[in-house]
Amino acid sequence: MSITLETSTTWASTCAVDELEAGWGEVALLGATQVALIRLADDEVYAVDHHDPHTGAPVMARGIVGSRGDRPTIASPLHKQVYDLGTGECFTDASLALRTYRTRIVGGMIEVELAP
Amino acid sequence: MTESTNAAAGVRDVVIVGGGPAAHRLADSLHARDTHRALRVTVVGEEIHEPYDRVALSTRLADGAADLTLQPSSMWADGHIRLLTGERVVAIDPVAHTATTSGGVALHWDELVLATGSSAPVPEIPGAAHARVYRTIDDVDALVAETRELAARHGRPAQVVVAGGGLLGLEAAGGLAKLGAHAAVVHSGGWLMSAQLDEGAGRALGRIIAGQGIGLHLGARPATITAENDAVTGVVLTNERVIAADLVVFAIGISPRDELAREIGLELGPRGGIAIDTSCAASAPHIWAIGEVASFEGRCTGLVAPANAMAEVVADRLLGGAAEFTSVDDATKLKLSGVDVASFGDALGRTEQALEIVYADPARGLYQKLVMTDDAKTLLGGIFVGDASPYASLRPLLGTQLSSEPAAYLSASGMEAPAGDELPAAALVCACNNVSAGTIRDAVSGAHADHAEGCTELGALKTCTRAGTQCGSCVPLVKKLLESELTKSGITPSRALCEHFELSRQELFESIRVLELTSFDEIIARLGTGRGCDVCKPVVGSILATQHGSYILDGGRGGLQDTNDRAMANMQKDGTYSVVPRIPAGEITPQKLAVIAQVATDFGLYTKITGGQRIDLFGARLDQLPEIWKQLVDAGFESGQAYGKALRNVKSCVGSTWCRFGVQDSVSMAVRLELRYRGLRSPHKLKFGVSGCARECAEARAKDVGVIATDQGWNMYVGGNGGFQPAHAQLLASDLDDETLLRYIDRYIMYYIRTADRLQRTARWIEDLEGGLDHVRDVVVNDSLGLAEELEQAMAAHVDTYEDEWAATLADPDRLRRFRSFVNAPNDSSPEIARVPERDQFRPATAEERERGEAVLVAGPTIPVRGAGA
C-alpha cells in the first residue's frame, strides 16, 4: 500500500542549454547541492547527483556517457560502475544507485526539479 | 583452537644439498605445501647465485646481463626456507644426522635430500688443464670474457673448439660464434646429437650448423691440447688432424656429483649417481636423491623435467604422501637461434616393429620423422630438424592414437594439418612442470581447485598452472587449449571491443585509418552501434590522437577521454587531481626545482617523488589546474602526460658524463628519446629506460623499451613491464648506433600501437603475437612485412605535430572553460575537500576523521598553510 501526497516541487534554473557540449558533463551548484548535468542530444538533458554513490567523491559529471542496450548511461570516473542516466539504476553493482533529477528546458534554460 | 605444538616438538629439519633447479623446485613445493610449517628447510648451494635456470644458459651467452634466477624466489626471504649460497656440504654423518659445510657449520637433519647435480667432465688428456667447460653462469661469463679478450689480443676473431656435439656443445658453439668467434665442433659420434637423433636427422642438423659457419669434425675426439707459454695453440684429434685453437671447451656430457654418497656408502647406479627407487629414496633411511645426481633404473638424466618430477615426489613424501616417480621424459628441444631441433619419446625407433614415417628434404634443410606402432596408429616418438613446429602439439600425444594419418602431422609434407586432436586429459602439455591437458582445461573452466574464477587469458593461465613458464616450448599449445576451451564454454574468444563495436582494437585502428574517419559520431555510425561506453570511447579517442595528433579535447573528442585524460591530470580518490610536469630523463635545474616547490607551496599540494624520476603534486581542484599550469608553463615546463595512455618518461642513470663506469651518454640519449616520443598515445602507458653500462642502474629491462649501452653502441630490449604481471625485457638487437636505435624504436612502438589490444602492455602483446619475439624482430629489424617505412613515417608525423597540451589549453579561453568548477557559478569552489596534516603535509581525510571533525575543509581561495599540527 502506498500513499501519494500531492506536493509542490521547485524547479531550479541552472544554465543555458547551449552552455553544455554534448557528451561533456558539467556541475551546477544549487544552494549546497551539486548536480551533474549531462546533455546527450539537442534537447536531451539529464541531471544526476554529482557524488559517486560508491565513494561519495564529487566526480560524477566527469564520467563517460554512453549507452547500454537502449538505455543512456554514465560511468563513474573512479571505478567505472555504470548507471542508468534516467533511473539511476546501477548495471554493474545492484547495491548501488545514483540519485536522478527530472529536467526540463524552458526558454533555452535547463531547469532541474528539486525536492520541496 | 589450540596452538599447534609443532613449533616445539614436531618440527623436522630438512637439509637439501645442492642449489640447482631440482633444489629450487623442492624448496618451492615445500614452501607452498607445508602450510603447517612442520618442516624447517635449509638449502646449501656452492655457487654464489640463487638457484638459476641452467636450461637457459645460452641466453646468458647472448646477453651478459640476462637474469636466469628461477622464479619464484620469494620463499628465500621467508623464515621457513633458508638458502645458503657459496657454501658446500663437505661431510655427512648418517648416524649423528649432520651435514658439515665448507664454512664449518654442522647442520642437523631429520631428512637429507641430495641434489648435488653433476659436473662437466674433462677427459684426462695431455693439456687438459687448459680446457674450459660450459655448465654454470660463471663458466659462461668467463667464456664470453675470454673470447673477447682473445679477439682483442690477436686482432682477429677467437678460434674456439667445442668438444661435444650434443645439446650443450651446439649451444656453446652457436653462442660463441654469434659473439664473433670462429667455432668448430668435435664430436665422437658419426653425426650431431647422436644420442637423440637418427642419422638422417643428425646429418640435416649438421648441414644447418655448417651453414652458420661452424666447422664440424665428426667421428673423432680431442687427443691432446697443445699450448705455448700457457696459451692454447690447438687441438690434436684422435684421427691425427690438428685444429688451430685459442680456446677449448668440453661439453661431452655430465658426470653425477656422487662423491658424498660414495663416502657414506650409499648404493650407486651402474654408471655412477645415487641409486633411487620410485619414491626417490636412496639406500639409507631418511636420505633422498633428486635431479641429475639420481640414478633411476640405472641411469642419470640431465634434463629439467625429470628433476622437477623427482622434486615433487620428495616434497610429497616428506609431507607424508606416497607419490611415485615413474618415468623419464626424454623430450628435448635445442635452444639455438636459427636452428630448430626437437626430439621426443622413442625417437630412434627402438620399439620392436616400430614404423618410421620420415619426410626429408635436404634442399630445404628439413627432416621430420614420426615413430609409430606397427599398425601406424599409436605415436611412439618423433624427431624434427629445420622446422620443429609440430613438436609442441605432438609431444603431448605420445602414447595415444592419432586421429589422422601420421604424415598429415608433418608440416614439411605440405598436407593440411589435422584440426587438432582432442588431447586426453592426462596428456602432458608442459613437461618441465608436469602439467597435463586436463589441468589446463580445469584452470580455464574454473574447475581448478585454487581458481574458481577460471583463467581467460594466457598470462593468468600460465601463472595459475605454471605451464609454459620454464622452457616455453609448449606456450603455443597452451594458447590453443585456452582458445578451444573458451569456445566450448560459449565464451567466443571474441576480440570485439564492447557491445558497440564488433571489431577488435587492431581492426578498428585500421578501419579508421583507411576510411579516414575523424569523429566518434562518424566512426560509430559507420562501424558500430549505440552511443558508445567507457570502453570504446577512450579507445577511439586514443586512436584518433595517434593518427592525427590534434588537441585531445577539441572537436567533440573531450567526452571520449578517460578520467585522467579528460582533465589532463590524474584524478585521486577524493576527486582532486595530481600534476606531473615532464622532467626529461630526470634531469632538472635547481631553478626549475624551485619553481615546482613554489607551485606546491602556493597551492598547498602534497609532494612526492615518483618512481619515474619525476615529481607528483597532489590535491589540486579541477578549477586550480589552469592556474597551476600557468606558473609551470611560464617557467618552461610541459605536460608529463602522467594522465595518458602515452609515453610517460624515459628513466636514465647518470651515464658516462659523470659515472666512472659508464660507457655511453645515457642521459643525452634518454632526453632525446623522451622528447621524440612525448605525447604519443598508445594502447597502454609506455615507459622507457636508458642505462649507460651493463650495470643497468636505470632498470631499463623493466621497461617497454630498454636501452643499455655497450662499448660498441646500444643494446635494445623490448617487452619489459612492471605492474601486476612483471616481465623482463628481452634482447631485440645489439650494438646499434644512435640512428638505427631510433629507427628500430619508431618501428617497434608504432607496430605495437597499431596491433595491440586495448590496455595490452608490450610484454603481453609480444606473447600474444604469432611467432612472439622472433616475429617482432623480423618486422622491426628485417622488415619482413614491408611496413618499416610506413611505421617510420607515422612516427615522423607524430614528432612533427607534437604540441604541449597544457600550453595549448592556456592559450585558448574556450579550452579553459572545461576546467570551471560549476557551470552556473564558475568562481565558486567545491566546499567539501577535507584534509588532515601528516608528516608536515596534507592528505585526504578518511571518513572517520571527517566524522570526528578532525579534517580541515578546503574551499575557494583558502589554502591550508604548511605546518598545521606539526
Describe this structure as you would to a colleague:
Chain A has strands spanning 10-16, 26-30, 33-41, 44-49, 65-68, 71-75, 82-84, 100-101, 103-106, 109-114. In chain A, a hairpin with a 2-residue loop joins strand 3 (33-41) and strand 4 (44-49). The mean pLDDT of chain A is 90. Chain A is 0% helix and 44% strand. Chain A is mainly beta and 116 residues long. With 870 residues, chain B is an alpha/beta fold. Among the domains of chain B are: 6-119 and 256-318, FAD/NAD(P)-binding domain (3-Layer(bba) Sandwich), CATH 3.50.50; 128-253, FAD/NAD(P)-binding domain, CATH 3.50.50.60; 505-561, no CATH class; 646-803, Sulfite Reductase Hemoprotein, domain 1, CATH 3.30.413.10. In chain B, strand 2, helix 3 and strand 3 (81-85) form a beta-alpha-beta unit. Chain A binds chain B through residues 14-15, 19-24, 26-30, 32, 34, 37, 40, 52, 55-59, 62-69, 72-73, 75, 77-78, 80, 82, and chain B through 499-500, 530-534, 536-538, 556, 558-560, 562-563, 566-567, 571, 573-575, 622, 818, 820-825, 828, 830-832, 847.
Please provide a brief summary of the model.
By secondary structure, chain A is mostly beta strands.
Q: Most extensive interface: pair and counts? A: A-B, 38 and 35 residues
Question: Percent range for helical residues of chain A?
Answer: under 10%
Order of helices and strands of chain A: EEEEEEEEEE
Strand content of chain B: 15-25%
| Oligomeric grouping of the chains | heterodimer
* Overall geometric form of chain B: globular
> Can you tell me the number of structural domains of chain A?
1
